[in-house]
Specification:
The complex is a heterodimer of chains A (114) and B (107).
Chain A lengths: L4 E3 L2 E4 L5 E6 L6 E7 L5 E8 L2 E5 L6 E5 L5 E5 L8 E8 L9 E2 L3 E5 L1
Parallel strand pairs in A: 2-11
Antiparallel strand pairs in A: 1-3, 3-8, 4-5, 4-9, 5-6, 7-8, 9-10, 9-11
Chain B lengths: L2 E3 L3 E5 L4 E8 L6 E6 L6 E6 L3 E5 L2 E6 L4 E6 L8 E8 L3 E3 L3 E6 L1
Parallel strand pairs in B: 2-11
Antiparallel strand pairs in B: 1-3, 3-8, 4-5, 4-9, 6-7, 7-8, 9-10, 9-11
The chains are: A mainly beta (114), B mainly beta (107).
């Protein structure tokens, strides 16, 4: 158990809808990261937050947004969903920005868009 | 641009040694990580290299050459449970993952 909690585990929704994925980082971790993993593809970096502030952005679509709250949990919002958004969405956390601080991943939310 | 290359698939026999290579071309370098991921599960941290050389941790070792943009993960005394994907990831201003190497270990 990595200590990173993601909810829900599974989500099935229709095209055009909006969903919110939630992540609670490990106790003491200030950084939260979101990754998307489509079938047979690598982990695609979406966005990183550190102590409530956005720190780095990847190829995150404009339909997607995220935030980190004062209690350090994070939410990833996906709107106007398309079939291609079906994927496993991972949240990870780390102690901070220090080099070598490994990311610890949650078990992911499997999103299916029908 | 950012480019991280790994072989797509590898096979090996239980008890053997396997080396998984990773080459990278990135803008910036602050270290290289290796992760293990079983199908449908979360990636788990294996190793971190920031300086050139070999880091050993039990049956797993990882090597880095910054001048060559090259790393490898060495797995010794392979076990069936080592069948998984192995992900190479480079830390720039963000952690960028390669597409992973799927390793199958046969009895």
């Amino acid at each position: 158990d990595s200590g990173v909690t993601q909810t829900p585990k599974h989500l099935i929704t229709a095209t055009g809808q909006r969903v919110t994925l939630r992540c609670s980082p490990r106790s003491g971790d200030l950084s939260v990261y979101w990754y998307q993993q489509s079938l047979d593809q690598g982990l695609q970096f979406l966005i990183q937050y550190y102590n409530g502030e956005e720190r780095a952005k990847g190829n995150i679509l404009e339909r997607f947004s995220a935030q980190q709250f004062p209690d350090l949990h994070s939410e990833l919002n996906l709107s106007s969903l398309e079939l291609g958004d079906s994927a496993l969405y991972f949240c990870a956390s780390s102690v901070g920005l220090a080099e070598g601080s490994p990311l610890h991943f949650g078990n992911g939310t499997r999103l299916t868009v029908t | 641009g950012q480019n991280i290359d790994q072989p797509t698939e590898m096979t090996a026999t239980e008890g053997a040694i396997v080396q998984i290579n990773c080459t990278y071309q990135t803008s910036g370098f602050n270290g290289l990580f290796w992760y293990q991921q079983h199908a449908g599960e979360a990636p788990t941290f294996l190793s971190y290299n920031v300086l050139d050389g070999l880091e050993e941790k039990g049956r797993f070792s990882s090597f880095l050459s910054r001048s060559k943009g090259y790393s490898y993960l060495l797995l010794k005394e392979l076990q069936m449970k080592d069948s998984a994907s192995y992900l190479c990831a480079v830390l720039t201003d963000k952690l960028i993952f390669g597409t992973g190497t799927r390793l199958q270990v046969f009895p």
